[in-house]
Amino acid sequence: MTIRVLLADDQTLVREAFAMLVESARDMEVVGQAATGREAVELARATRADLVVMDIRMPDLDGIEATRLIAADEDLADVRVLVLTTYDTDENIVDALRAGASGFLVKDTRPAELLDAIRTVAAGEALLSPGPTARLIARFLRGPAATPVAVGGPECLSEREREVLSLVARGLNNTEVAQALGLSPLTAKTHVSRIIGKLGARDRAQLVIVAYESGMVTPGTM
């Protein structure tokens, strides 16, 4: 299946470079380019892209607010957002994850890594590397989110599901969760899917936010 990609960045050269890279992959195509966050939202609705590669800092409407609008639109429930940042210590990344982004990527990443990231997020996984994600969450996530990211809380989870959620919040993928708990990867994946359903979260990225905001995982427990 071809992954339909929408590129949102206010720098034309950056967009064009990303477009050439994406088009070079046999399993991807660029369905639109946006120079502002508002254009990104409009094009997401018009093109029904599978994934938006979203710059955080853009004029008119920044990438965080654009991500929030996309995530809140029921008609765009299947659209995933991969945010771009200049530095992996950018506190705005946390706001982007809260808003509904499925992961983040540093702009100077290698071309092959960008394509792999697009495939990962488009497949419904979150792009959350343990190191930067844990540091960011622990440093910047304070107080309640502007809008709830889930309709349920960890109290509705079984003990095993709470263990899985705790590991997911540390950035572990399904295979790593399975190894840590002595489960099969398929069982770990099933647990994650059930947790997402119970908490009403959009994806794994929001599970990280839920775990921290509920106090299940706290700074210093990495």
Category from helices, strands and their pairing? alpha/beta
Q: What order do the helices and strands follow?
A: EHEHEHEHEHHHHHH
Q: What is the rounded distance between the termini?
A: 37 Å
Tally of DSSP helical segments: 10
Organism: Streptomyces lincolnensis
Protein name: Two-component system response regulator
Keywords: DNA-binding, Phosphoprotein, Transcription, Transcription regulation
Pfam families: GerE (PF00196), Response_reg (PF00072)
Could you explain how this protein is built, in words?
α2 runs parallel beside α3, α7 packs across α8 and α7 crosses α10. The protein is 49% helix and 13% strand. The chain is built from ten helices and five strands, in the order βαβαβαβαβαααααα. It folds into two domains: 125 residues, Rossmann fold (3-Layer(aba) Sandwich), CATH 3.40.50.2300; 95 residues, Orthogonal Bundle (Arc Repressor Mutant, subunit A). 45% of the residues are buried. With 222 residues, the chain is an alpha/beta fold. The N and C termini lie far apart (37 Å). A five-stranded parallel beta sheet has the order 2-1-3-4-5, with helices on both faces.
